[in-house]
Every structure is written in C-alpha cells, then in structure tokens.
Here is the input.
Amino acid sequence: MIPTIFTFEKVPRLTLVGAGPGDPELMTLKGLMALKAADVVLYDALVSEEILNMIPVHVPSFSVGKRAGAHSHTQDEINELIVDYAYVYGHVVRLKGGDPFVFGRGAEEIAFAEAHGVQTTVVPGISSALAVPASVNIPVTERGVSESFWVITGTTKAGELSGDLALAAQSTATVVILMGLNKVKEIMELFQAHGKSGTPAAIIQNGTLPTQRLVTGTVSDIASKASLAGIGSPAIMVVGEVVQHARALAAVTQEVATHYQ
Here is the structure.
C-alpha cells in the first residue's frame, strides 16, 4: 500500500463506473466522460482492452482484477487503495465490468470511501445479466412465456451454491446465473430435481465480444454440451423457455447487415 499523501489542490472523490458487458460500444457516454475526467483509474479484470484504451494516456491506471481463483487484490486492499489514491491524486475512477451494483461489491467500496471522507458518485453500467442474453437474441421476459426474471450468483462467498437457485428452479421465470460455470453440473441437477429437465438452457462465453461463444440445449444436457465445446469463463447461464430464441452473435450481425444493404 502506498503512503497517504494529502493533496490540497483537488477534492478527494470516487466515481464508480460500470464498463458494461465488454463491447466498448456498450460503454455509456457518462462513463466515458468520467474516464476523461479521471486523475487515476483502478480497473477490474473483466474490463475489455478496448475500453481500457479509452483511458487518457496521461492518466495512471492500475489493475486490481479479481476473478475466480485469481485475485490480485483482496476487497479490503482495494478499499484502502481507493481512499489512498483519492488523497494522492484527487479523482479516482473505479472501473468495473457490467454494472457496479450487480455483484460488483460497489456498495462496499462506496461505504468505505465515504467513511474516510471521500466524495462518491455512481455511473451505472449495462449489466451483463441483460446485455449478454440480448446479444444472442434471448429476451429475459416475453409476453405469455416469462413474466419475470431472476439474476442469481451461481456460488456464494463460501463457494457453495446459492440458496436462491432452489427457489428459482421452482419458478416459471427466466433464470440468469452469473459466476456459476464451475458448478454448472450441480446447478442443472438442481433444476432437474424440480422437473425442469426439458427446459431450454444456454451458456454464453465472452458475451458481446468478438470471441463470444454460444451453446444451447436443455437443462439435462447443457453441462455436457458446454464441456464438449470447451466453454470457459467468463460465461453466463440462462434457463427458461425464452432460450428457444437464441441465435449466435454472428448470425444476428449478418441478419442486420443484410437488412440494411
């Protein structure tokens, strides 16, 4: 940790910015303006290289990436860095994948910063829970098919399955599962136990990026299909009748291009 050096030229402040699901064109204008006004940027591992290239060249930026099994910094260390850098540099932009308040631990960072005299602002981002299914033509709601949707973390802080999964498996809602790929077999077995073996399911890797991959099937076979296809993290799972609309990103892109020719 760097020593705290108080700056009297600039007010210490923090802006939490949601970078969106990965595609740089899905970064909000307000988020981009915050980057342009930053004195320093702390970014997560899931922020794409194209978005990192939007950081002005004169602005120092540091990776504090956290991914399953590979944490370069603990959350407590990140909290401390935010406060230290705010007093050293002035305006800290904390750049987080998706939306900072959807499994992004943004509330913890805001609370810690404010407790240490740092002014805070939040710039919402497009959540991958919505954008990634949409990118392969999956609507999370559809009239007469799905009246609601659940967004659930696949595993808890302790590495166990979320208790909400059992509740979601009993619903007719679309279920979007984040950070659960390493537990996909157990998750799908839970849905099968509630009579959902034949329910359509999809797994999307690297959603909205050129490297995006899509595997579709049913609750009973999606785990084996994903394994055979070599699907890896980061990936999102979607379970529900709306998955029947799924189309690969390349196919959707080609259809749009053909329409406007």
